[in-house]
Amino acid sequence: MRLPTCLLPAATGLLSLLFQNVAAHSQRDRINYISLVEDPVIHTPSRRVHAFSNFDVTFSLHQKNQRIKLSLEPNHDILGFEPQIQFVDSEGSVQEIQSIDRHAHKVFKGWAWVETDAGWEQSGWARIVVHEDGAMPLFEGTFTIMHDHHHVMLRSNYVQTRHPSDPALEDTTQEYLIVFRDSDIGRDIHSNLKRSSPIERSCGSDALDFNNDPDHPLFRPVVKRDQSTWASMPLEFMLGISKRQNDIGGGGSGGPTNVRQTIGSTAGCPKTRKVALIGVAADCEYTKSFNGSVQAAQQNIVNVVNTASQIYEQSFNITLGLKKVQVVPQDCPPTPPPTAPWNAGCGTTQNPGPSITERLNLFSSWRGDQNDDHAFWMLMTTCSSGPEVGLAWLGQVCVTDATQQTDRENTTTQSVSSTGVVVRTPQEWQVFAHEAGHIFGAVHDCDSDLCSNPRIPATSRCCPLASDSCDADGRFIMNPTSGRGITDFSACTVGQVCTAMGQNSIRTGCLTNNRNVVTYAGSECGNGIVEEGEDCDCGGDELCGSNRCCDPKTCKFRDGAVCDDSNEECCRGCQFASANTVCRPGSGPCDPEERCTGKNALCPEDVHKKDGESCGSGLACASGQCTSRDMQCKVLMGGRLDGNNTRACDQSSCNIDCYSPASPNVCVYGMQNFLDGTPCIAGGVCKNVSQIPIPSRIVVLARRSHFITGLLYRKLLWKRDKVVD
């Protein structure tokens, strides 16, 4: 099947090779041990808290052998961006839209302390949601002690997600709290929730076509900006991948990006806090798992995002903010409705519901119709497919449309967008963080199986522990299987994602600035968000550190300061940067650099030259890149066809079809699309899924098709202009 004429799915240049599903998540090992939470006390005069309280909570673990204190403050980032919840019926029709009441959600962040003989000793971070306060408080979330995650769960939620091999609890209707640690999770050869298969094994995403595409911008090389010959540049340059910097080694066409060379690099990640506004949908089975309570399902989603956001903040300087939540009733429809095709039951052994891959496909197609600019959408369900408990498309953050694609055999059509699927488990937030990592462009960490095939780490299909050590030993979020001791993203993942952002191989345009944000709480000094009435907000005493510009107690500029270096691109030493200071480097003749004005702390808007404007002999601007149809063919196909004189087969389609004079009757269909703004014949341009405007005359090429080595070769039977009325 050929892609529709003039389809251009991603301005970032994610190549639209036609593939199967995605990146998967974990197989859950059994929990060997749990501890009851004993003597929990909220340290306020009334033992009560509200959504904007600052307080401590203490409790005991391990039969009172360990005392814990959590020092908590409101986390306004998660629900601080005018979030909505949509209530829909079983047919997918929206019945009611409500703003999420910030006062109703007691969402907190802070620090964990352990009591020692010398007093309280800080040992990690905490993310907590309080369900009930008073004399018998109930709360859920995660905190760390010496990098060991401690997961706090209600008894009822543990029972709902418990695997038969996990420890059993007393059969009672009374609610109480339990804790299990990552170190309590055992590796069991009969474990049942493996992340889906990588190359030549049953675990990981690396063998899946879309995420394994060698022409994916995350895997292709980057050429230095001072390269003298446009014709020898890889397509990533024209797609903006080398826009900001050249962190990744390699060069020429066809060589892979080397993640070993960017391990630990944060160049490319935002220097000032950005916010990724996201949407989350919960299907009927997910709501059913909370005994049909839409409110409980919504509260759990808030808890998951609150916890997952912590590692994105510390690793990438990006907050995950809930913008929209859609929850459906627990009664699953007999047939999923067109308005919510992903809302299907798990089915039975004899009549199974959609697989997790099919759910992702349906959800991606639905997401493309939502007309929003969210960074991504995540579907929450309880329906796993055998071992798989999560899937996501690689590197699709900020891709709001859904691109229809087929697999290599031209048999199955799938939709690709910024979406993922998460199955409910006791470690749900880690699955969520893992799948969101794929959406941000992260591949799996290398493990012993992946390292056993030298081709996989050599082509950056997994992230090694270090430049001279392959196996990451299952210690990080992007590990292909869940296990003990998983606390953070690996240094390799940080380098890969930051580099991808800096080089524009993933989109980042949907990430919002942390400035003039409207929150339901009103102005709340110390939440890290610069709200109305505040000059700055560096996040409170703990996070502000040695900030010389912002007073963390008043959220006003310190004496003599006019801006905050940590939050604005054109601020240097608490003063406006001088005029003509480069705040955003350019990438070529169609994307000039931006400079500070000297009168403002914000970098001017990123402006490209107009599509179609001449930028060289036979070249014109398209999406900020200086290119032409023939040029895009040269850099894509030049290494695959004889010589580097490749040309476009026609001037009408927005699919990249190329040929070489050395083989004049063979047209190579590259299974990707020309850049947005590339001219079509008679004045049209490629734009999203169509030519705008559709020209009155087009060139028609009749071809006979067959696949060879992953590229679609078409015999040219004839080539002539044909007038289409």
Automatic annotation (TrEMBL):
Domain named Peptidase M12B: residues: 274-497
Gene3D superfamilies with a match to the protein in the record: Collagenase (Catalytic Domain), Disintegrin domain
GO biological process, any: proteolysis
Protein's UniProt keywords contain Zinc: yes
Span of domain Disintegrin: 522-611
Annotated GO MF terms: metal ion binding; metalloendopeptidase activity
Protein keywords: Disulfide bond, Metal-binding, Signal, Zinc
Residues at the catalytic site: 435
SUPFAM superfamilies xref list: Blood coagulation inhibitor (disintegrin), Metalloproteases ('zincins'), catalytic domain
Signal peptide: 1-24
Positions of Zn(2+) binding: 434, 438, 444
InterPro entries: ADAM_Cys-rich, Disintegrin_dom, Disintegrin_dom_sf, MetalloPept_cat_dom_sf, Peptidase_M12B, ZnMc_ADAM_fungal
Function, as annotated: Probable zinc protease.
Protein name in the entry: Disintegrin and metalloproteinase domain-containing protein B
Source organism of the structure: Uncinocarpus reesii (strain UAMH 1704)
